[in-house]
From TrEMBL:
Residues 296-316 are annotated as: Disordered. Residues 296-307 have a biased composition (Basic and acidic residues). Residues 404-501 form the MRH domain. This is Glucosidase 2 subunit beta. Residues 118-200, 361-388 form a coiled coil. Keywords: Coiled coil, Disulfide bond, Endoplasmic reticulum, Signal. GO terms for cellular component: glucosidase II complex. Residues 1-19 form the signal peptide. One of its GO terms (biological process) is N-glycan processing. InterPro entries: Gtb1-like, LDrepeatLR_classA_rpt, Man6P_isomerase_rcpt-bd_dom_sf, MRH_dom, PRKCSH, PRKCSH_N. PANTHER family: GLUCOSIDASE 2 SUBUNIT BETA, N-LINKED OLIGOSACCHARIDE PROCESSING.
Length: 511
């Protein structure tokens, strides 16, 4: 029996068809004929691997280059078996690490399978280490996500009584503010009334002709000698319907007696009597300007310096007591007139009690603003937590750490941004506005892809979109961005979030 085994092995080896894997040898059974694998033809077995392509499916020439689309199997013992195009057989290029593709002997192919195995094995060990590191980081992300979720739940549970308390504080602050502002408004109205009375009393010192012209100048905003509709509508106090929010052109035309423009004489005759009581208190600056111009007009011209100093005729100067008294009275009158031109300082009416009321109102507004801000911030925080609780953060909430975080990838032309749960964007490196490539749509392919859709529409094309291909890595990093199809972008993104627990690499495996 022991003597028979080598004989059977030799027979079996001699029956093996070159270029066919052990698992497919059964498709080439011993016998006098071979049937093409597609069943289309039967040929003598001697025509298998005879360097001539007989079968339409090219299955009769697995070990030669006769059939252009055939497949040659490299056993590559000690490494990974490989299938190559049969057209590469005996082409004087070593494709198989065991050299079996160059069996014709035209070139010497050393067996490099062991070296390639060792290199691949070392690479696999390194990949396994990286995967292990990534998986360890993934576990950290999962632990952090658990803590964040617990924190969110605790904040949410405590939120309702906290917000109720903040609302109570705001309501109380609002009440105090309203009371303080009501008193402030009352004081302002009193002071405004005092101020207006002084202005009206001052207006009464002018002739009717002068004060009407002063009012005309006040309304003539562009100083072109005529009043038009927009110059009336800019003065809300002239609105015949003050209860309305706007002063319309139609209402202004009513004030102007349906005229498109008013000159001074028209103004005096048509509308001055009707608006006089409304406008007098608004004329303080206009009266100041009028008095300034009158003052300048009455100012004597500066005398030119004479070429020779004239001698003063002492005899013509009246130094009598009566004359000096008259000159003094004239100067006093001038000083009184100048004093009357000084604008009224309404702070004179502002007592310490008034100032306390104003300060209290200001302080109450600050207290209210602070209370309102605190309430809004608390409500916003709770709203954010509730929104976060609805998001799909993947298995074990592992993607939770990517919420409201963005990553960038820079090329020579663009900066690509990836913001999970938000958007993808493309911005020129040299500045300028960004182009939205898509808004968050969700995960696909068992959480191995992120999808972003409905970006900015391409010129004569579809809306932009982006797919993010995720792979295991120790850090979150965008590896590349491409545009495989027009307006369709593909990001390659490494993240520990998708790392799985690595299988141990055996000491020897045929990869």
């Amino acid at each position: 029996m022991k003597l028979l085994l080598p004989f059977l092995t030799a027979v079996f080896a001699s029956d093996r068809i070159r270029g066919v894997s052990i698992t497919r040898q059964a498709l080439y059974p011993p016998g006098t004929h071979f049937t093409c694998l597609d069943g289309s033809k039967k040929i003598p077995r001697a025509q298998v691997n005879d360097d001539f392509c007989d079968c339409a499916d090219e299955s009769d020439e697995p070990g030669t280059s006769a059939c252009p689309n055939g497949r040659f199997h490299c056993p590559n013992a000690g490494f990974a078996p490989q299938n190559i195009l049969s057209s590469r057989v005996n082409d004087m290029i070593c494709d198989c690490c065991d050299g079996s593709d160059e069996w014709g002997g035209f070139v010497d192919c050393p067996n490099t399978c062991k070296e390639e195995y060792l290199a691949a094995h070392a690479e696999k060990i390194e990949a396994q280490k990286a995967q292990a590191q990534g998986f360890e980081k993934r576990q950290d992300l999962v632990d952090e996500a658990k803590l964040q979720k617990i924190s969110d739940e605790e904040e949410l549970a405590a939120a309702e009584p906290e917000i109720q308390e903040l609302q109570k504080i705001k309501d109380e602050a609002d009440k105090l503010k309203n009371e303080a502002e009501e008193l402030e408004t009352k004081v302002n109205e009193e002071l405004e009334a005092v101020k207006n009375k002084k202005i009206v009393d001052r207006a009464a010192t002018y002739s009717e002709e002068d004060i009407s012209e002063i009012a005309f100048n006040h309304l003539d905003a562009n100083k072109n000698g005529e009043i038009v509709v927009y110059e009336i509508t800019s003065q809300k106090y002239l609105d015949p319907k003050p209860e309305t929010s706007s002063f319309t052109t139609k209402e202004a035309k009513e004030v102007m007696k349906q005229k498109d423009k008013l000159y001074l004489e028209d103004f005096r005759a048509e509308i001055w009597p009707e608006i006089k009581e409304k406008i007098l208190a608004k004329l303080e600056r206009a009266m100041d300007e009028w008095d300034r111009k009158i003052d300048e007009a009455n100012k004597p011209d500066e005398p030119k310096e004479p070429e020779q100093v004239a001698e003063v005729d002492q005899e013509t100067v009246d130094y009598s007591e009566e004359s000096l008294d008259a000159m003094e009275e004239e100067l006093d009158e001038q000083e009184d007139y100048n004093d009357a031109l000084e604008p009224v300082n309404h702070n004179d009416e502002l007592s310490d009690e008034h100032q306390k009321i104003f300060d209290a109102a200001k302080a109450s507004r600050k207290v209210f603003d602070d209370a309102d801000r605190n309430l809004r911030e608390a409500e916003s925080k709770i709203s954010e937590i509730k929104e976060r609780s609805k998001r799909d953060f993947g298995p074990d909430d592992v993607f939770r750490s990517m919420n409201k975080v963005c990553f960038e990838f820079k090329t020579t032309e663009y900066i690509y941004t990836l913001c999970p749960y938000d958007k993808c964007e493309q911005k020129p490196v040299n500045g300028g506005s960004g182009t939205k490539l898509g808004s968050w749509e969700g995960f696909e392919n068992d959480f191995n892809e992120m999808h972003f859709t409905n970006g900015v529409k391409c010129w004569n094309g579809p809306n932009r979109s982006a797919v993010i291909k995720l792979s295991c890595g120790v850090e979150n990093v965008v590896l590349s961005v491409t545009e495989p199809n027009r307006c369709e972008y593909e990001y390659k993104f490494e993240t520990p979030a998708v790392c799985t627990k690595p299988e141990p690499v055996p000491d020897h495996d045929e990869l």
